[in-house]
Amino acid sequence: MSELGKKIYRLNRTLHRDFGHLLVGLTLLFAISGIALNHLHDFNPNYKITHVQKRVDQLAPSASDEQWVQHIKQSLVITEKLRHVHSPSPSERIIFFPNTRVELNIKSGVANLEQVVKRPLLFPLNQLHLNRAGIYWVYLSDIYAVLLIFLAISGLFMARGLRQKVKRRGHLMLLAGIIIPLIYWIYLSGGGASGS
Measuring CA to CA, which residue among 89, 118, 115, 119 is closest to residue 104? Predict the structure, then answer.
């Protein structure tokens, strides 16, 4: 290898190493959120939704919606501000809070709660993954993608002096990494997943 070739080789190794360290955090971010977003049909990756049924003491038949709301907040320990009260029938009330919905049967005192809470780690990660953090994050994501391309290509020239057997294995893995997504691309282009 010429002196120029050695300099290019060392520069490639240095940049590959430094950019690799730089991108660890972003790679983990996109990998973790990517796994979560891939399973939207299995669970809600952004919110944890719980359903609970409780019974509250009944008020007088003449009690107003406002009295019922205060009673529900005290009985069920809800600290959120009221958004709206809906009355589908004289004996039913649906009380909406920012993160809680209460379906109340006035006659029986049965209250069905639905509470929606953001998942502490996954919610912000997913918002970043979906580019919902503003234009500067979009630019940062573009830079990240370009650097990933560099890492993929520079990685092909990282090793030298390898045994022929190791080189063959590397070539096979490179081909597998190209062929597998290519098969899916051909499958989707042919309308194979149109029914999903």
Answer: 89
